[in-house]
Amino acid sequence: MRIVPEELYQKSYDIVKDIDEYDLYFLALHFQTGHKIWTGDKKLRKGLKAKGLFICVSTEELKAKRYKKKQ
């Protein structure tokens, strides 16, 4: 049973291959669910922002209740 379709893994890999290819699973799950990625990984956050993807949320943001899922 697969939760995330193969094409989302490929799309995710293409985006994160020059950031950290092991993060492709988190990105693929984001594309599947639409939920932000909760991470303290500054390299991932910075790399995704540089590509126009503002999809990460930090623990501090969660604590401040600033996180909202985009509809």
Describe the structure.
It is a single chain. The chain is mainly alpha-helical and 71 residues long. It is built from 4 helices and 2 strands; from the N terminus they run ααβαβα. It has helices at residues 6-16, 24-33, 42-50, 59-63; strands spanning 37-38, 56-57. A two-stranded parallel sheet has the order 1-2. Helix 1 packs across helix 2. It is globular, with a radius of gyration of 12 Å. It starts with 5 loop residues before the first helix and ends in an 8-residue tail after the last helix.
Key attributes of the depicted protein:
71 residues; mainly alpha; two-stranded parallel ribbon; 49% helix; globular; PIN-like_dom_sf; PIN_dom
Give a summary of the structure in a few sentences.
This protein has helices at 6-16, 24-33, 42-50, 59-63; strands spanning 37-38, 56-57.
Helix coverage percent: 40-55%
Q: What order do the SSEs take from the amino end to the carboxyl end, as H and E?
A: HHEHEH
What is the rounded Rg? 12 Å
Count of DSSP H/I helices: 4
What is the CA–CA distance across the termini? 27 Å
Tell me about the largest β-sheet.
Answer: 2 strands, parallel
Structural class: mainly alpha
Instruction: Identify the strand order in the major beta sheet.
Output: 1-2
Unreliable residue stretches: none
Q: Name the beta content range.
A: 5-15%
Q: Strand tally, please?
A: 2
What number is the mean pLDDT?
91
Question: What's the shape?
Answer: globular
